[in-house]
């Protein structure tokens, strides 16, 4: 019995080594590029396989290595280009890398920088192939350049800057098929509008434990929304239009210490009343004082019924 | 397709070791290979799947039934896939990727490929050669040259030279 099992195991492994290159490349596409290139040492067949993997996924490699890999990479259509880079680099270099990805019809672009506060290349905002764009901790959403992202479905803007308050609405208006939007703001103040007839999933996070005087102002108009996650201070001003398609909501309101005057927080029950169609609601008012909390909790129960 | 009759249609699938399985057509057509056979009218009797053994096919059918029962919610589907693959050993994953490729099931193919990649990520060259059945056909000099060329890629990887 054991021998039969061992035989079966052996057979599946032998068949695995017979897999066509396209499937091996598909498996390699789920690895960071460093690991994918290291498979070139396995055997002659694997030597250049990495160069045909449709994903480039850099995790803090130095600039010389990134550029060497780009030159040796043979794929004309890149499905995913991911670049996590901790050290600073020039605007010129950054533009070269992003332009490289766009010239290869990139579909999913994810950029994470920690030190660079630089403008994004203009060609990024007119990329016809982009389906999924995630910017983390860098980049300025522009006002002055043309924007047209006809295929973009997923957009994550984590701690990016905005050239003006109108930059975000202008960007969203140029994404006709957007379905998922995630925004986390790390700016001192933020005042904007989120308006889209197509967005189904929306995550908004305004965490800022240190801010007690400034507040964020946001108007939401997303009638097709199905899922909403919101983390905001009770002193922020967040207004929403009708949310009749909403099924799931995960809402966290926090209170910054030493704030007084409940009349400043009137928008909170108003906002919660907008959630009347939800089937699954998580409501976290953990930092509320007890007397305020009970009032809001009643509103929430009433809405659900 | 018999969908017009209003009753769920069941298909019979046969593995390459002659095991028979019944599965709802609505779940089975997650496989583009099977869907094409159904659309071409070849699914009247038993559908032979010459490249999949009974043990793997049973597992694939469990997946087909599980995933097709989840409504259009990508998050829930993803967590089902993660759970489904969590207890599978490397040999089973190898069989699954071959089956998913043969059956043309892109969602299963992606999930299993990602899982194989996740297992490979921290492993040594020797481990990957053994598990993939790869024969090292480099001369020692060639292998040293390739290693030297991509020296930076071997930083932080476990070394085992029992290959």
Automatic annotation (TrEMBL), chain A:
Q: One Pfam annotation, family name? A: LRR_At5g56370
Supply the InterPro entries for this chain: F-box-like_dom_sf (IPR036047), F-box_AtFBL13-like (IPR053781), F-box_dom (IPR001810), FBL13/AtMIF1-like (IPR050232), LRR_dom_sf (IPR032675), LRR_FXL15/At3g58940/PEG3-like (IPR055411)
Q: Which residues form the F-box domain?
A: 13-49
* Name assigned to this protein: F-box domain-containing protein
* Taxonomic lineage from the root: Eukaryota, Viridiplantae, Streptophyta, Embryophyta, Tracheophyta
UniProtKB/TrEMBL annotation, chain B:
Secreted among keywords: no
Q: What does this protein do?
A: Involved in ubiquitination and subsequent proteasomal degradation of target proteins. Together with CUL1, RBX1 and a F-box protein, it forms a SCF E3 ubiquitin ligase complex. The functional specificity of this complex depends on the type of F-box protein. In the SCF complex, it serves as an adapter that links the F-box protein to CUL1.
Instruction: Provide the GO biological process annotations.
Output: jasmonic acid mediated signaling pathway; protein ubiquitination; SCF-dependent proteasomal ubiquitin-dependent protein catabolic process
Protein name in the entry: SKP1-like protein
Q: Which organism is it from?
A: Erythranthe guttata
* Top-rank lineage group of the source organism: Eukaryota
Q: Output the InterPro entries linked to this UniProt entry.
A: SKP1, SKP1-like, SKP1-like_dim_sf, SKP1/BTB/POZ_sf, Skp1_comp_dimer, Skp1_comp_POZ
* Entry annotated with the keyword Plastid: no
Subunit (UniProt): Part of a SCF (SKP1-cullin-F-box) protein ligase complex.
Domain (SKP1 component POZ): give its ranges: 11-65
Q: Name one GO cellular component term.
A: cytoplasm
Q: Which pathway features in its UniProt record?
A: Protein modification; protein ubiquitination
Stretches assigned to the SKP1 component dimerisation domain: 108-152
Q: Which GO terms describe its molecular function?
A: cullin family protein binding
Identify the keywords attached in UniProt to this record, alphabetized. Answer: Ubl conjugation pathway
Which family, according to UniProt? Answer: Belongs to the SKP1 family.
């Amino acid at each position: 019995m054991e021998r039969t099992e061992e035989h079966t195991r052996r057979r599946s492994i032998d068949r695995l080594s017979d897999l066509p290159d396209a499937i091996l490349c598909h498996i390699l596409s789920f690895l960071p590029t460093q690991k994918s290139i290291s498979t070139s040492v396995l055997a002659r067949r694997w030597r250049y396989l990495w160069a045909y993997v449709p994903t480039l996924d850099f995790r803090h490699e130095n600039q010389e290595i990134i550029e060497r890999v780009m030159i040796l990479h043979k794929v004309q259509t890149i499905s995913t280009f991911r670049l996590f880079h901790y050290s600073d680099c020039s605007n010129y270099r950054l533009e070269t890398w992003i332009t490289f990805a766009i010239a290869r019809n990139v579909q999913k672009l994810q950029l994470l920088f920690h030190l660079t506060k630089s403008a994004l290349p203009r060609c990024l905002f007119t990329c016809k192939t982009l389906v999924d764009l995630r910017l983390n901790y860098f980049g300025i959403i522009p006002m002055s350049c043309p924007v047209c992202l006809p295929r973009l479905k997923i957009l994550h803007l984590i701690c990016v800057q905005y050239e003006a308050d109108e930059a975000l609405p202008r960007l969203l208006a140029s994404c006709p098929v957007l379905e998922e939007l995630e925004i986390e703001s790390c700016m001192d103040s933020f005042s904007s509008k989120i308006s889209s007839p197509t967005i189904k999933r929306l995550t908004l996070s305004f965490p800022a434990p240190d801010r007690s005087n400034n507040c964020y102002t946001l108007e939401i108009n997303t009638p097709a929304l199905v899922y909403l996650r919101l983390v905001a201070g009770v002193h922020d001003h967040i207004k929403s239009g009708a949310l009749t398609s909403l099924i799931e909501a995960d809402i966290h309101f926090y209170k910054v210490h030493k704030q007084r005057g409940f009349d400043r927080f009137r928008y909170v029950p108003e906002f919660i009343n907008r959630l009347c169609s939800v089937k699954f609601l998580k409501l976290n008012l953990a930092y509320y004082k007890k007397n305020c909390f009970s009032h809001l909790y009643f509103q929430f129960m009433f809405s659900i019924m | 397709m018999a969908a017009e009759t209003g009753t769920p249609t069941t298909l019979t699938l046969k593995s390459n070791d002659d095991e028979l399985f019944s599965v709802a057509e609505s779940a089975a057509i997650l496989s583009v290979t099977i869907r094409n056979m159904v659309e071409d009218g070849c699914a009247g009797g038993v559908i032979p799947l010459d490249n999949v053994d009974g043990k793997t096919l049973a597992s694939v059918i469990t997946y087909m039934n599980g995933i097709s029962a989840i409504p259009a919610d990508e998050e829930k589907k993803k967590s089902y896939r993660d759970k489904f693959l969590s207890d599978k050993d490397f040999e089973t994953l190898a069989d699954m990727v071959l089956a998913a490729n043969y059956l043309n099931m892109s969602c299963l193919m992606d999930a299993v490929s990602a899982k194989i990649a996740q297992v490979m990520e921290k492993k040594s060259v020797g481990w990957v050669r053994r598990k993939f059945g790869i024969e090292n056909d480099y001369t020692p000099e060639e292998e040293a040259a390739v290693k030297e060329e991509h020296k930076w890629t071997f930083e932080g990887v476990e070394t085992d030279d029992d290959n």
